[in-house]
Amino acid sequence: MCNMTLISTFNPQTSWQPPQDWLCIETLDAHTGGEPLRIITNGFPELAGDTILERRQFARENYDHLRTTLMFEPRGHADMYGCILTPAVTPEADFGVLFIHNEGYSTMCGHAIIALAKVAIQTGMLPAKTPETVIKIDTPAGLVTAFVTIEKGEVTNVRFQNVPSFVVELDAEVEVPGLGKIRYDLAFGGAFYAYVQADQVGLNCTPEEHKELIEKGMQIKRAIMNSRKVEHPNEDDLGFLYGTIFIAPPLTEGVDSRNVCI
């Protein structure tokens, strides 16, 4: 047996720096009840357009590769959600926002508004006013107002007033391959959703059913998209079905219902 001295040239304290011509995008990751939100705070190219919908279209046509870079693995994952901060387009708004995810660009997102409102106050993006700070945000769907409760310098609660909501049709029916005839309500609340009673497909909106909820929710969404045209009365870019919302009885006393958005 002989002794050998290994001389390593490996140095973990590298001085390497990325080339100056590389695009550097800064983000801040947050969660709302487990729902992720990657907030793009700096470095995203300027978006042209006089409205948030125009900027959304510009991003989709010119910078979609950045959306996939930020949302897909290895930087993101299948359920990653994010937003791009942009200047306000209405006089009363504090700032504007675009919503992005693994499939594209959504028009409104409640969990993102809640996370963004908290982050805006906690990081000093906007000044805090006790006991409640009002934040007005231009979204693709319209102006959304968040109300941030502050106690002892900390955000303790966030609620928001959404854009006007409306029902398109109640008790509509669609034939879904493998599931049969499904009854649903079609309504808008920043985006169009099909609302389905979960017991129609043998589900109860529990964590153990998450795979079935996703599969059947997507089946229903695709069937509705193939069977009808979804139109917004004012904006063509808002005229699409975003998802399926399953509704089930509550599991907790004092709660009105239980739902899962697919």
Question: Brief overview, please?
Answer:
The protein has 262 residues and is of the alpha+beta class. It has helices spanning 52-62, 64-71, 110-122, 210-227, and strands spanning 26-32, 35-42, 81-86, 95-101, 105-106, 132-139, 142-151, 154-161, 166-176, 180-188, 192-197, 241-248, 258-261. Strands 1, 2, 3, 4, 5, 6, 7 and 8 form an 8-stranded mixed β-sheet that branches. A 5-stranded mixed β-sheet has the order 9-10-11-12-13, covered by helices on one side.
Explain how this protein is built:
The protein has two domains: 26-161, Diaminopimelate Epimerase, Chain A, domain 1; 166-261, Diaminopimelate Epimerase, Chain A, domain 1. The mean pLDDT is 94. The longest helix has 18 residues, at 210-227. The protein has four helices and 13 strands. Strands 1, 2, 3, 4, 5, 6, 7 and 8 form an eight-stranded mixed sheet that branches. A five-stranded mixed sheet has the order 9-10-11-12-13, covered by helices on one side. It starts with 25 loop residues before the first strand and ends with a strand. It is globular, with a radius of gyration of 22 Å. The chain is of the alpha+beta class.
